[in-house]
Model the fold of this input.
Amino acid sequence: MGKILIIDDEVQFRKMVRQMLERAGHTVVEAADGRQGEYLYRQQPADLIITDIFMPEQEGIETIIAMKRKYPDVKIIAVSGGGRNDGLRFLNQAEHLGADRIFEKPFERQELLHAITEILNP
Amino acid sequence: MTGDVSTGKREGSEPFLKAITVSYLLATCMLAAVAIGSYIILQGYTKAEATSAAQINSSGRQRMLANRVVMSGYRLVQRSEHAYPSDMVEAARLDLLAAADRLQQSHRHLVDGNRAMNLPGSFSDDIRSIYFDGPDSLDSQIQAFVARARALASLPEPEITHDNEHLRYLGAAVEGALLARLKMLVGQYQEESEENIDHLQNLQLGLMLSTLLILLLLVLLIFRPMVQRIRSKIKALKETEILLQESEQLHRLTLSNLSDAVFITDDKGAFTFICPNSQGIFGYSPEEVKEIRNIGPLFGGEPVDRSRLKDGEMLENSDWPVKDKEGIEHHLLISAKRVDIQGGTTLYSCRDITILKQAEEALRQSETRFRTIFERSPLSMQVISHDGRTLMVNKAWENLWGADLETLDNFNIFEDEQLRSKGITQYLERAFAGESVEIPAILFDPRESQPDLKRVQPHWVRALAFPMSEAGSPANKIVLQHEDINERKLMEMELASHRESLQKLVDERTGELVRANKKLRQEMRERHQAELAILDMARFTECNPAPVLKLGGDGKILLANDAAIELHDTDALVGKSWASLVDSAPDFEQLLKRSKPVQMECRCCNRTFLFTYQPIREQGVVYAYGTDITDLRSLEQQLLQSQKMEAVGQLAGGIAHDFNSLLGVILGYGDMMRDDIPPDIQLRENLEEIMQAGNRAKSLIRELMDFSRPNGNNRQQLQLAEAIRESVTMLRASLPATIRIHTSLHGGKEPVLANAGQISQVLMNLGINAGDAIGDRKGEIGIELARVKVDERLAAQHAVAVGPFLKLTVSDSGGGMEKETMARIFEPFFTTKGVGEGTGLGLAIVHGIVKGHSGFITVESTPGNGSSFHIYLPAMDK
Done:
């Protein structure tokens, strides 16, 4: 099991994912945006970061770039509800920038957990 | 003629002979002068030669005598030295002296001149110089020579020796200076002689040339004109001779052709000459007349008293009746003249005047007739003589002018100023020349010309002047025939005045007519131009590709251009109601009450027109100008559709993120709740319902997301047929087995630039829609691919480029669509399906994808007969 940092501006979604992961035995840390996520990761490095793309303050793409620059080994799953004119394209970009997996909201719980397992236990 | 010629000869011959004489004298003098000149020159020539010869001879003689002196000296010396007998010595001495004397004498002859020897006493300067100039002059030498010779001869015998100085002198002189001087003299003589001869020769030549020149001049100036004159005289003589011969012939001819009979008789009346023509009068031939012998029997008496005849006089008997051989009486004019020819003394000339007598009688009668006619003529007549006097006037004339002939005693028609000024004189002259002349009417004032005339008022007279002679021959008298035309003339003048005023009137009317005509022509020209302009305007309207109509107040068509006629596909538009041909038309009566135009859109023959109705109140008509706005409306629809789609896309993009997040929360919790709730309780069922709704929402959001995605992504060169084939397999699986899919994909081989997934989505959406349209019934879906060429009209309608396109047609045998449905099918969220069955985005997505591929989509559908969707995608070059 691993320690997972969830970065999403949507509180309900964060809570839902937290519960989903905690049920699967993972430890979860929550951050409301990319800047906060970066801070928390610096304080308590996680095994995996699950980050949204569209967020206020600092977008997911920025966060991914920053985290990958500072912590090249960091594992990242990017999720996005799409929208805002071509959100899926940003997901593809995120994958290109170093995200290990990408998921479109709403995703299947099992698919996410399966992906986390694969990332944490390569 | 003969006398004239002879006189001319006498007059011309005297100066001629004088000229010849003068010429001869001149020529003789010239020749004599030449002969004398030649003689003188010859004499001079001879004399010069003789003188020259004499001088040369004398010089030679002097030389010879000098030698003789020397020889005599030597002989004396020889005899003296050799003791010749004294007499021989003396003889030699004398001989020497004689020789010296002769030398001196000869010298004197030469120097002093001796005419007997042809030696002149005068010399030229050169000769004189040789003779006398200087100590070596010939004269000095000769004198010295003679003196030495004499000195030698006078010496005593013993002194006379060879070495005697005198003898040496003499010898040396003969050999030296004297000889040289004599030679010089001879040379000079010869030279001067030649000069003289040359001079004389030149003189002779000059004389000869002068002579020749004079002779030539004589020939040219005197002899030549003389010869010419002689020739002309000879010619004149010849001509005179010919004339004389002709004259003689003429006389003979005249005599032989003379109608007169000519006889010559002697004193006793016996014929000595009878001209051959006597037969013409008397009927007797000359021979027969000769037999009659005497004039008395021939004439029946003596017509002329011959005893009264004198030389040069002529007696005449003007009418002597005789009877000819046939007994016919002739009247003769007989003239007799004393002559002395042909052995006769009296020449009788007889002319037959019988016809003349008859003519005189006829003339007399004619004159009587003329006078009768003249006198009785109602026309005024006046006979005028050549000098302008009036010879006769008739009664009518007297009546006309109120005068008689005496009144005109002092009147001369040629001198009358009035008639002259009116140009009448020239007409009279023409009449006298033999012409019948009509004299134009003149206004004649009698008092002005002849104060004695009683008629005083000026009046109009016209006249005819004709000669009293044969027509065309000059006459001595003319008849002037007057006609009083005063009344007629006054009437004519009045008439002319009327005519003039009438003409003036006609001219004025004509002028007005011309002006009116000109104006009319101008108007016609303007009207023609206006007609042309109208025609042009009409053509302008006719050529208008848009429909133009003229409508009456009742809405019926009065006129329509070609475009309007073509639109309705009938020639019989005129008279039809406009409202019956279009779906909407204005109320024309209301329209005509206002003057402003109105615009109204209408459908007609499946096309949309915007008609502008322009009322013309004055004419009670309405002009309708149509504009085909079908394509405009279509483009507007498309634009609207696109804008709508774009708005929906933006909306979808904007809300999708939040929706997905929310759905993620709902579905995430739902999924976790499944773990917590046993399946057999109601709560679990409710949860599943929530999950199902969430999933539908998720699906909806996906479609919205697809709809809002840009279309250009991942497009690549694609073989449309292959992409469709793959999609048909998927479609097959999605449709009930009652629906058959028929494909025909061989038409388009060209590739297209397209996103394979989107193409698949298009086909799937259209196929599923087609399946829905067919429903549970048996049916068929046709999928066809063809290559087409999009023309300008279609391209303009759908805002694409002209060129080759691939046309994908998806047709179904379903229920088809109403027009209203068809107009909205591409609108997002428009659906005919029940709630929950369709999102209303399928065809909108299809439309978006096709537009994103630079293509377009058209639909054909009629209720009950299915629908066909045609997707046009631009073909790439192979």
